[in-house]
Amino acid sequence: MSSIDNTSPLAIRSILDKQRASLLERDPLSAAQRIELIDRAIGLLVDYQDDIVEAVCADFGQRSKDFSRVTEVLSPLMTLKQTKAQLSEWMKPESRPTERGEAWVQYQPLGVIGILSPWNFPVNLAFGGLAGALAAGNRVMIKPSEFTPQTSALMARMIASVFSESEVAVITGGPEVGQAFCAQPFDHLLFTGATSIGKHVMRAAAENLVPVTLELGGKSPTIISRSADFDAAVTKIITGKLHNAGQICLAPDYVFVPEESLQDFIAAAKKVVATFFPRLLDNPDYTSLINARHFQRLQGYLSQAQAAGVELIELNPANEDFSQQDHHKLVPTLLNNPSDDLLVMQDEIFGPLLPIKPYKTIAEVVAYINAHPRPLGLYYFGSDEAEEQLVLSRTTSGGVTLNDVIRHVGVESLPFGGVGPSGMGAYHGRDGFRTFSHAKAVLRAADGPDLMRPPYVEQVRQIVSSLITR
């Protein structure tokens, strides 16, 4: 069985050893064999779609089933299908120019890939990593989050129903299992989660010199230019922020608004929420926070900001009372220009709170962004080409969406990853295939003089001297 709950490091290691032995005892998988594995994963998403939606909703307490079907079933399904369609092309050796014979890069499986997937999109991010790892011909071990126990258990059953433990295995359990998982000598480790946890993952991986891809999130800034279609921008920002109640690593974390448009932004935001979420508390499309700890963390941000005199603007169209509820829903709230010493401006929010930063010039916006850790995403709304290029060239972020939020993550042909504190490495599409492959350099040497082999006769000296030129 592929699921092991509260397992020991020794048991995890035995699965890794089984997978590595299975990989080494046979030829690398052909394109057809890899496609067959991907087809199994595709079948799981199709066959278990209703179970996936129900499990995720149960783990969150309240989450839109339609949103879950799109993000947890359709999105990874499309990733797997696109991977399947293109992997034969990705696998082809790449010729490289040389005057010394014939040179090429040959991609081969790294071996056993470890995937640590998070709770906010538990199936999406597990199967998204699985797509690239299988395309590259690897074996895979997945450790899903303990914050979504029903979904994690379901994934373990799903995977075990179509994959042998030597092909793909799911390891379930709490933080101690996660620590044991990170300490294994994988051939590559993919982690999606908080920056604070990413440091521990990288430290554990370093003990075995395991290369890592870290997708860590951060505080993704959003800029509304004076040249923007203002109402359209506010609609996209607010609806994007409220996807999954803000529990998205790429959610807009704070928004720059021209100072003269501050009140217009607040009015427009209220209108957007009233349009899409006329009621919130019992609305099945408005997601609950994952657990009490995250709910209390966000309440703490609000309490600290309120004590500091920050204006809090609740986006609560029906003026509902959230004090008595079965879940952990939080009223969407704007924070008017909170200072940088407040936690809401230091931590990744990961919830339906949105600080507003009024600005005079785009130069001060760029300076502010550059004075803070590099984010996973950045969003610019506007039609001023010179200003757009200024933002693109003078700021550094994992990725950018122009005139919308979050959507670049869904383009499989683009690399997805962070930079600096928001992560390292990239995956998705061809970039994922390469991340989980070893690019082996190969040279078929041509006959000719070897300038490094003695004796260094006068003819060799002359050849060397003729080559040393400006």
From TrEMBL:
Boundaries of every Aldehyde dehydrogenase domain copy: 28-442
Active site feature: 215, 249
Gene Ontology MF: a single term: aldehyde dehydrogenase (NAD+) activity
UniProt KW Oxidoreductase keyword: yes
Matching Pfam families: Aldedh
Key word Nucleotide-binding present: no
GO cellular component terms, semicolon-separated: cytoplasm
Superkingdom field: Bacteria
InterPro entries: Ald_DH/histidinol_DH (IPR016161), Ald_DH_C (IPR016163), Ald_DH_CS_CYS (IPR016160), Ald_DH_CS_GLU (IPR029510), Ald_DH_N (IPR016162), Aldehyde_DH_dom (IPR015590), Aldehyde_DH_NAD(P) (IPR012394)
Single biological process term from Gene Ontology: aldehyde metabolic process
Keywords noted in UniProt: NAD, Oxidoreductase
Family listed: Belongs to the aldehyde dehydrogenase family.
PANTHER family found in the cross-reference section: ALDEHYDE DEHYDROGENASE, ALDEHYDE DEHYDROGENASE ALDX-RELATED
Protein name stated in the entry: Aldehyde dehydrogenase
Biological source species: Pseudomonas auratipiscis
